[in-house]
DNA sequence: TTTTATATCAACTAATTGGTTGAACCAAGT
DNA sequence: ACTTGGTTCAACCAATTAGTTGATATAAAA
């Protein structure tokens, strides 16, 4: 039955996702996945042939569904940098609150197998025609250029480095998820409190990023406008 | 011979360190370690009994020698927060430029085995007497209190959250190391260029952190003082 | 020189773990 | 009823890998 097929396939993927994200590729055991899926080990091979293949399917799915859309925001030439940042940070947090182990999982496997995964990234994020196809890019010229422009207009700090800023922003996003246990232990937070911390963090990271990027006057103006907008959307 | 003993022991540890940091515990193979140490696999067991024990020795060594001293900076009641931040960020970068795989390695193993590693952390960083011994802490009350005081004096932004700031600072520190390949690929940097990027980053992260923390006027004053001091020390 | 303790290795064992087999099951289609 | 197709499983196999053995070298101690 194809309907039941699809179902068990999904069950397996869900279990595999959990185990892989928890243990990494080499730490994961097919038996563990089978157990958590509540079925025989054979099923995994029946539907996905090998551990490697099962992993690839899941990794690619996670990457394309969850990470790639985020990367795309920062390459969207239709959006102003400030809007790019706001959307990226928000979407990032909303996605990762649903998949808290994803950041560390992706980064770890990425580090262990850069070549293979860069290829996948290239497929998942189609490079726009104008750009050099030689090297895959993860963040964007657009982003950089717009910051240059903001400096010229006197809105942004002249001594801020766009590349350094981007790394800082990403770091601020990832760290709360990647180092969850340290943070939770250090601040003695329950799971619910930690969730609240993450929800709040979203707006803090936006704020932090803009404090780095913008000149004080422009920041104040932006903040006022931003708070007003937020109040309108929340009512 | 005890002198030769010490030597081979060090050789093994060095090889193991590399392999473990590269592959993680479950990805590492005893044979690989033996190969990279240029000796028989038996030697590893002769000197360190088991894979787990070898791993523990190295992990604890790395943690106590490299991470613990950094954590201690943020709990030092003798130092002003601003000085704490400057020293932490600098030391962090200097340490990790020497051991670029360490951050991801520690975080990954930490996430896989929080309980065991929290115990180790507790041993490595003796908790000062006044504090509640129940839960191990990674960052500090001192840090928090001083920021409160800075706000009261009107130096720091009232709406900055000390905990959020700490996570942001740590994230800004770690991310350049943890996501090296992404960053290097995105910006198309050679290894030397990446090293330069990291060297520069040190000062950027300090700057970013203070831009988040301080009110514009106070930041300007600090910056002026800071640049003057830097020029003096570099001559 | 002989003894003794440590260090080293090639070859082996034991345990783990990814992957396979062949039989049973089950739900259409005839 | 019975054939056919995909689905499921317990038991098995093969490969990998942590850990051991027993023999040999070496060099200090007697």
Question: What features would you describe in this structure?
Answer:
The structure is a homodimer of 235-residue chains. The first copy, chain A, is mainly α and 235 residues long. Chain A has two domains: 1-49, Arc Repressor Mutant, subunit A (Orthogonal Bundle), CATH 1.10.10; 51-234, Tetracycline Repressor, domain 2, CATH 1.10.357. The first copy, chain A, has helices at 2-27, 30-37, 41-48, 51-73, 81-98, 102-112, 114-124, 141-152, 162-178, 180-186, 191-213, 216-234. In chain A, helix 2 (30-37) packs across helix 3 (41-48), helix 6 (102-112) crosses helix 7 and helix 9 packs antiparallel against helix 11 (191-213). The radius of gyration of chain A is 21 Å and the shape is elongated. The first copy, chain A, starts with a helix and ends with a helix. Mean pLDDT of chain A is 90; it is low at 129-140. Chains A and B meet through helix 1, helix 6, helix 9, helix 10 and helix 11 of A and helix 1, helix 6, helix 9, helix 10 and helix 11 of B.
